[in-house]
């Protein structure tokens, strides 16, 4: 049995369903992470997207449905088949997106606290956030 290898671009953070495990090395029987289709995040534009990419056109990974529906994306680029892997688990995607949103909220709160500690006004902070001074004060503490 030959060991599975990952496609070098399969580790792109925007295209993978979950970040690779940092604690363990990938063994020959460890499945390759699912690669998310470029259009998976836009169900209105591509309602028939199957979510799991099967080909890569340069930096863009597409599922079979989106590859058939493309008009000019990747024209002139030879599609590279991605190694077979598991289907994208949408509930894992939900959990990952929730964790990312929670981390983004913590990062934003920390950035606002640092901005205030360096003398930036609520007006300046609010302008960057696209909200009113009052809203910034209420949200991040007066």
Keywords:
4 helices, 6% strand, 142 residues, 3 strands, 2 domains, mainly alpha
Domain module tally: 2
* Sheet having the most strands: 3 strands, antiparallel
Count of distinct strands:
3
Secondary structure class reads: mainly alpha
- Please tally the helical runs, counting DSSP H or I stretches of 4 or more residues: 4
Structural Rg: 20 Å
Report the portion of residues in β strands.
5-15%
Question: What global shape is seen?
Answer: elongated
Q: From N to C, what is the helix and strand string?
A: EEHEHHH
Largest beta sheet: strand ordering: 2-1-3
Helix content range: 25-40%
Report low-confidence residues grouped into runs of 5 or more. 1-24
User: Could you tell me how far the N terminus lies from the C terminus, measured between alpha carbons in angstroms?
Assistant: 63 Å
Mean pLDDT: 81
């Amino acid at each position: 049995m030959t060991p599975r290898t990952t496609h070098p671009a399969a580790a792109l953070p925007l295209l993978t369903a979950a970040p690779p495990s940092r604690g363990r090395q990938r063994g020959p029987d460890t499945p390759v992470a699912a690669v998310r289709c470029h259009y998976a995040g836009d169900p209105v534009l591509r309602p028939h997207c199957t979510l799991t990419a099967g080909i890569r056109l340069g930096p863009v990974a597409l599922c079979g449905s989106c590859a058939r529906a493309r008009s000019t994306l990747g024209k002139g680029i030879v599609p590279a088949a991605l190694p077979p892997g598991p289907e994208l688990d949408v509930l894992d995607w939900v959990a990952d997106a929730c964790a990312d949103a929670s981390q983004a909220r913590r990062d934003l709160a920390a950035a606002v606290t640092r901005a205030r500690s360096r003398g930036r006004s609520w007006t300046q902070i609010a302008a960057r956030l696209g909200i009113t001074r009052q809203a910034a004060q209420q949200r991040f503490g007066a």
